[in-house]
Specification:
mainly alpha
């Protein structure tokens, strides 16, 4: 059970990290893009 929780949290962190990376790339390129903020 604890392993499943750890895997879920790592997956969530990686998704949020990827989301922020993509958002920052669009912001650097000055492209209009709207993302929900966590």
């Amino acid at each position: 059970m604890a392993t499943a929780i750890v895997v879920e949290r790592l997956f969530l962190i990686s998704l949020v990290g990827l989301h922020r990376f993509i958002y920052s790339m669009y912001k650097l390129a000055q492209l209009p893009l709207s993302f929900p903020h966590y």
